[in-house]
């Protein structure tokens, strides 16, 4: 940081068995954050300099930033000026946080460029939702419909292995994999988490079999859940350790891999279909070459319309010739009362792509009772659909699926219905 020293707050945060702490960092200029772990438990330990700073719409490390995607296959990222600058990533939320709603309407065959977003500060979630949109209520016992601001959860500390040179782009003669669909012995449900200790609230539940944290290492996920790694984006901080991490994950027993979080949204991984296809061939296809039985997922798209969402996904499929794509990953955020739209959207993802579907993020806005009613309807529906392989509700965090040391009211619904 240049100029006069700014006020700095140091905090010692300990993570309990089923609780989490939140630290808010607000900056008005580029900042480097160094995190030195103290006596943390194995489930929460992180390497120094690996913390992401939530909020904002661009990377701050070394001034590298995302620009709106174009149709060009090549996609450039400004490298950090030094390795120390990578200590803090201005990393937009790992999800849309319910508030970052995207327009949705009837499907369109036209594919537009990834929408750009105005720059924002590095403080928590600088986004104004559309008129009339209400953030989902925090967990309450009253059951009344209330509005509350969903604060960006601090992403799980990112552990990067020593950089490993990626080999040249791989290709496969078959676009469709011969691998058998994933068939969890007891359930399709997963836990989307940042703090792995919170997942213990759902441990031992036969309906919940897997988990992911938008990262490449499990950060202490209990062995009761299968861990699914994710290559979140195409920035150097993601791809530098990816090869070493996916190889380690295969050794540890991971059978599926995810990639590119919401590439159709400029504040997320922000990639055009052709850029994502090039990245997929280079960084995802080698996993299939190494182990043919592994299952690879498409980039995870929003439920936006007019070139976003499923439109983007179909364009990606067309661009990714020679790619083994075993399933498509989709997200959905809307009102808890719009159940038919949810079912129609998930079905459309399957019919338009011809692939099984993983719903890796979905969230409903409304009262606790409304969210529970939504889950009581859609969970059995997804369990009964052969084309829906896996799904995970957003997310295992206090105020959402967790309340204190136990599942919240609708967290209990997620665990039991």
UniProtKB/TrEMBL annotation:
Gene3D superfamilies: Glycosidases. GO terms for biological process: fungal-type cell wall polysaccharide metabolic process. It comes from the Eukaryota. One of its GO terms (molecular function) is hydrolase activity. Residues 190-414 form the Asl1-like glycosyl hydrolase catalytic domain. GO terms for cellular component: fungal-type cell wall. The keyword Hydrolase applies. Keywords: Hydrolase. This is Glycoside hydrolase family 128 protein. The lineage of its organism: Eukaryota, Fungi, Dikarya, Ascomycota, Pezizomycotina.
């Amino acid at each position: 940081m240049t100029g006069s020293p700014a006020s700095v707050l140091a905090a010692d945060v300990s993570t309990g068995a089923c609780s989490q702490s939140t630290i808010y960092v607000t900056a008005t200029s580029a900042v480097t954050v160094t995190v030195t772990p103290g006596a943390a438990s194995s489930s929460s330990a992180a390497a120094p300099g690996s913390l992401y700073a939530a909020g904002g719409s661009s990377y701050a490390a070394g001034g590298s930033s995302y620009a709106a995607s174009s149709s060009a296959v090549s996609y450039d990222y400004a490298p950090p000026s030094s390795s120390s600058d990578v200590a803090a990533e201005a990393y937009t939320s790992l999800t849309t946080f319910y508030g970052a709603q995207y327009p949705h309407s009837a499907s369109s065959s036209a594919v537009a460029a990834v929408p750009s977003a105005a720059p924002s500060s590095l403080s928590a979630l600088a986004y104004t939702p559309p008129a009339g949109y209400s953030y989902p209520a925090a967990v309450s016992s009253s059951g009344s419909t209330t509005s509350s601001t969903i604060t960006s959860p601090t992403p799980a500390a990112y552990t990067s292995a020593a950089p490993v040179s990626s080999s040249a782009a791989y290709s496969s003669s078959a676009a469709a994999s011969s691998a058998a669909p994933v068939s969890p012995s007891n359930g399709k449900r997963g836990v989307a988490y940042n703090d792995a200790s919170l997942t213990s609230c759902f441990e031992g539940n036969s309906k919940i079999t897997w988990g992911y944290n938008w990262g490449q290492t499990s950060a202490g996920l209990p062995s009761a859940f299968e861990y699914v790694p994710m290559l979140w984006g195409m920035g150097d901080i993601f791809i530098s350790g990816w090869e070493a991490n996916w190889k380690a994950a295969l050794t540890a027993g991971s059978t599926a891999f995810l990639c590119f979080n919401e590439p159709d949204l400029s504040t997320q991984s922000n990639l055009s279909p052709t850029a994502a296809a090039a990245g997929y061939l280079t960084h995802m296809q080698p996993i299939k070459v190494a182990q043919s039985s592994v299952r690879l997922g498409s980039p995870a798209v929003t439920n936006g319309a007019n070139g976003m969402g499923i439109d983007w996904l179909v364009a990606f499929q067309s661009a990714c010739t020679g790619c083994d794509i075993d399933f498509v990953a989709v997200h959905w955020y809307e009102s808890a009362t719009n159940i038919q739209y949810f079912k129609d959207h998930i079905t459309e993802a399957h019919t338009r792509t011809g692939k099984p579907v993983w719903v890796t993020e979905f969230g409903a806005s409304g009262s606790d009772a409304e969210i529970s009613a939504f889950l009581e309807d859609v969970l059995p529906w997804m369990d009964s659909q052969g084309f829906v392989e896996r799904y995970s509700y957003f997310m295992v965090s206090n105020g959402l699926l967790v309340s204190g040391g136990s599942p919240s009211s609708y967290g209990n619904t997620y665990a039991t219905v």
